[in-house]
Write a structure and sequence with these properties.
single chain; Rossmann fold; 8-stranded mixed beta sheet; 3-stranded mixed beta sheet; 22 helices
Length: 759
């Protein structure tokens, strides 16, 4: 027997349904379908042969495509009919949907015949040791249709006409009409059966087993009420006479309901039944894999951006309030600030201009490589004289495809551990922003954190509880529990020159507040504003919230391509719980249920996007799977690339430890899992990183992931061409190449980003 994975089952079902059905597996007796949300619930099967798997999946896809809600096996039957009537509907509807799905996929017919033969061999229909031709018509019909009309079964002329009608049904209305006709025929057939006396005896025995105890109890109660004639008995009668009218009515109602249920049960027993359909439903459990892990399906919450995003005007207004107070306190002068801005521009503007020209040349080269020469359809007068021996007399034109528009959003980690790297990170981001402005690439720059104090200041709130931040995402059953995140905007491409220079000045002062106090501007101090507190690293929450931000960004700027750039320096906060489907689940912790990747199959999904991400507990170490799932979901939802810049420590063992925990090779293998060669490989990679100031890793979820050195290595240096000794042509050439490479290495974020974007 061949074992099939859940993924292959889901994919085949989707392909056969010709739509991205949402497939969910669970420990259920039989398949179910939600026609409104297009969710097909499949049992967890075991030891499937190829044919049997094709049968079960094809059958359920047939239901998903063609059966209305009232036609499913577990749907409530028409209350005007006996409950046995549902089996008649099942038989006719199964024949209809199997015909239609085989019509759509003719290759399924052989699988259906082979698989049903297998199931009959396992006695799934309960006919072992019995002659099928001695059974009622509905049972013969069920076996005949399930065998794909290949089994030799005897039918009368009248029955053959009804079989022809079953073969001809196309709609659910046809199914109900034909099932009613077969049901009426079966009632007459049952009345004429010679075994009726034996059948009545068996029904009476079953009736006595089910209801006899209730009747005995009722009779005993009547005997007690009648009494025995002695004094003790009279006392009992006196007590019963004191029974309230309400209790008498209640007793009477119970007896009436009991009689009614008894009569219905008796009627159902005398109504025709499809034993083979009932037997199959009972035996379906034999196909279930009881030892398998349960499946947990979780979705991503919706972010309330009005509670999450702070516009840049408010961010810079709060910074300027702090700078004004410090300026008034003579901590620095306006001249110090202007010098700060001039030095930054002098150091970077020339290189940015050169880089912009190089970028435009690369774009033009790629566009020219895709150019095609085409005929215009107009005759070239200069070539008309050659028409008798050359048919190439039409004017030519070169068709150069228009370059695709690109945009980016940058997320800067505002966690406490970033304090030693924040100055250099801000400078790298400012260089990237100036480059994007130069080449007209739309962009936004945000920080992400979960600082409650920043959140209150941004909204000018004097009071409020931290719990208010936990309403930033929806909290529906089945959603990942994501708490607070704060996205604060600093720069964007819509700013005019004056506005950008104002924000650039604030950012440079903020950078200086993180730098060494003994810098070249003399004994001045830039103290970090209170609105710029650092806190934690809610990366999953930030990416989740960024989905709608990115979609709006793409729409407003009419972008073909977009990228998310994440600059961070440590492990993200763990997201470890989800909202249970059942609110009364006793295993919840603070209202959420823990992810257990080793005891359950965890699948992150988005039904609207038809997105699924299954957790692999062996590969997804340290609960990184929530971040990975969120990254993959973001890429699917926004059609964007994701670039990660991981800022590492620049000292020996800490650097090697960071590489060990975060590095993935080109095959997606984690260095962390390779305990034999981990430390030696980490040493080798750390040397490469120190040499190039960047190390490429292949982290899942990212299009590109870079390790970059932190601390002073993040700062851009003053550009100088160094030549020792006599200046020659070769020395000048080599010095210029070294000089240009050094400038790229110093501005690592913008240089690596340019390498990654598609022109």
């Amino acid at each position: 027997m061949t074992n099939f994975t859940v993924e292959s089952k889901s994919q085949l079902a989707k392909l056969m349904a010709t739509e991205n059905l949402t497939i969910q597996h669970s420990k259920i007796q039989t398949a179910k379908f939600d026609p409104k949300n297009r969710v097909l619930y499949l049992p967890i099967w075991q030891n499937m042969t190829g044919a049997l798997y094709d049968l079960l999946t094809g059958h359920e896809v047939g239901h998903a495509l063609y059966t209305p809600a009232e036609g499913w096996h577990d749907a409530v039957v028409d209350k005007t009919k006996s409950k046995n009537f549902k089996s008649f509907l099942n038989v006719v509807e199964d024949a209809r949907i199997e015909k239609k799905v085989q019509r759509k996929y003719p290759g399924l017919k052989a699988s259906f015949i082979k698989a049903y033969t297998d199931l009959m061999g396992r006695d799934f229909f309960g006919i072992k040791g019995r002659d099928i031709n001695d059974m009622a018509f509905i049972n013969r019909l069920n076996i005949y249709t399930k065998s794909q009309y290949s089994m030799k079964v005897f039918f009368t002329g009248e029955e053959q006409k009804m079989i022809d009608k079953v073969k001809a049904v196309e709609s659910w209305a046809d199914v109900v009409k034909v099932a009613n006709e077969i049901y009426a025929y079966s009632k007459d057939e049952q009345a004429d059966m010679p075994e009726l006396e034996d059948f009545d005896f068996n029904i009476q025995a079953e009736f006595d087993d089910e209801f006899g105890e209730d009747f005995d109890s009722a009779n005993e109660g009547n005997a007690d009420e009648a009494g025995t004639g002695d004094d003790e008995g009279k006392g009992s009668v006196d007590e019963s006479e004191q029974e309230s009218e309400a209790e008498k009515e209640k007793t009477k109602e119970f007896q009436l309901n009991n009689d009614k249920e008894s009569n219905v049960a008796m009627e159902d027993q005398f109504e025709p039944r499809c034993e083979t359909d009932e037997a199959f439903r009972k035996n379906e459990s034999m196909l279930l894999d009881e030892s398998s892990k349960d499946y947990v399906y979780v979705t991503f919450p919706k972010a309330h951006l009005d509670k999450i995003v702070t516009p840049y005007k408010r961010v810079h207004s709060l910074m300027e309030e702090s700078w004004k107070q410090q300026l008034d306190s003579n901590l620095f002068t306006e001249g110090n600030v202007q010098q700060l801005v001039r030095d930054f521009k002098n150091k970077n503007e020339k290189y940015i201009s050169l880089l912009a020209k190089e970028f435009e040349m690369k774009k033009a080269a790629k566009a020219f490589a895709k150019a095609k020469i085409s005929d215009t359809g107009d005759i070239d007068i200069n070539k008309i004289a050659t028409y008798s021996f050359d048919d190439n007399i039409f004017r030519k034109v070169m068709m150069v495809p228009k370059g695709k528009s690109h945009g980016l959003i940058l997320l800067l980690d505002y966690s406490g551990s970033m304090s030693q790297n924040m100055g250099g990170s801000i400078e790298q981001i400012l260089v990237l922003a100036m480059f994007c402005r130069k080449v007209n690439i739309p962009f936004h720059v945000y920080s992400f954190s979960d600082s409650w104090s920043n959140w209150k200041r941004d909204r000018d709130l004097n009071t409020g509880s931290e719990a208010e931040m936990n309403t930033m995402f929806t909290n529906n059953p089945g959603e990942v529990r994501m708490k607070s995140v704060l996205l604060r905007e600093y720069l964007n491409s819509k700013m005019g020159n004056a506005e950008f220079n104002r924000c650039l000045k604030n950012m440079l002062m903020l950078k200086a507040s993180y730098d060494d106090r003994s810098h070249r501007y003399g004994p001045i101090r830039f103290f970090r504003p209170e609105s710029e507190n650092l806190s934690n690293t809610p990366l999953s929450q930030a990416i989740c919230a960024m989905k709608d931000v990115m979609l709006n960004f793409r729409k407003v700027n009419n972008l073909d391509l977009s990228s998310l750039v994440i600059v961070h320096d440590g492990e993200a906060d763990q997201v470890s719980t989800y909202n249970p489907i059942n609110p009364d689940d006793a295993s919840t912790i603070y209202g959420g249920k823990m992810f257990e990747s080793y005891s359950t199959n965890i699948i992150f999904m988005d039904p609207k996007l038809k997105f699924e991400y299954r957790v692999n507990p062996e590969a997804d170490i340290n609960r990184d799977y929530v971040i990975r799932a969120t990254l993959e979901w973001f890429r699917k939802a926004t059609n964007s690339k994701i670039f990660g810049f991981f800022i590492t420590p620049n000292n020996g063992r800490n650097l090697q430890g960071a590489i060990t925990n975060k590095y993935y090779d080109k095959d997606g293998n984690s260095l962390y899992n390779n305990h034999v060669t981990t430390w030696d490989k980490a040493k080798e990679l750390s040397k490469e990183l120190k040499t190039n100031k960047a190390l490429v890793s292949h982290n899942p979820g990212f299009n590109k992931f870079f390790f970059i050195l932190g601390g002073k290595d993040l700062n851009t240096e003053v550009d100088e061409i160094e030549i020792e000794g006599k200046v020659t042509t070769n020395k000048l050439k080599n010095a210029f190449m070294k000089f240009n490479k050094k400038r790229q290495v110093n501005r690592i974020v913008v240089s690596k980003f340019i390498e990654g974007i598609a022109a």
